[in-house]
Each structure stands twice: as structure tokens, then as C-alpha cells.
Amino acid sequence: MHGAGHILEVFYLILAAQVMAFLFKRLNQPVVIGEVLAGILVGPALLGWVHEGEILEFIAELGAIFLLFMVGLETRLKDILAVGKEAFL
């Protein structure tokens, strides 16, 4: 039964993220903000549908890795050089 609870928590996270992404897309807002807010909403801070634990920690780390990867894909060296040394501070 404990494993089924983890699957249900992941389902809640994915469902909430998709709903918020849809809403934010319709409002012409960044989708990632809606997904982050969905995580806060269903997490232990508000609704408590997802509890702290190894699964939540793993998903949070995976999300941070994907976010940094996407930022890296969108960052151009030419833009960094144009800003100068302030970009490295």
C-alpha cells in the first residue's frame, strides 16, 4: 500500500502541474511559474496532498536539473559577452 501512495502523490503532482500549465498558457504567462505554483499548492505547505520524503526530494532535484538545463540551452555566449563582467557576478 505504501508504494501505491507514492504513485498517487506523483499523479497529483503531474495533474496539478498540467492544469496550472494550461491555465498559465491561456493567460499568456510563463508555464514554468504555473508548474512551480502547482508544486507549492499540492505540497506539504498548503494542501498536503504530497508529503515530504525521498520521492518529493528526488522530483525536486530532477526539476532543478531540468530547469538549469533549459536555462543553459537558452543562454547564448554572445549575450553574456555583451553584458560583460557583470554577468559573472
TrEMBL record:
The chain crosses the membrane at residues 6-24, 31-49, 55-73. It is found in: Membrane. Keywords: Membrane, Transmembrane, Transmembrane helix, Transport. It is a multi-pass membrane protein. Signal peptide: none annotated. GO terms for molecular function: antiporter activity. It comes from the Bacteria. One of its GO terms (cellular component) is membrane. GO terms for biological process: proton transmembrane transport. Residues 15-88 form the Cation/H+ exchanger transmembrane domain. Its main location: membrane. The keyword Transmembrane helix applies. PANTHER family: SODIUM/HYDROGEN EXCHANGER FAMILY/TRKA DOMAIN PROTEIN, SODIUM_GLUTAMATE SYMPORTER. Belongs to the monovalent cation:proton antiporter 2 (CPA2) transporter (TC 2.A.37) family. This is Cation:proton antiporter. It comes from Thermus tengchongensis.
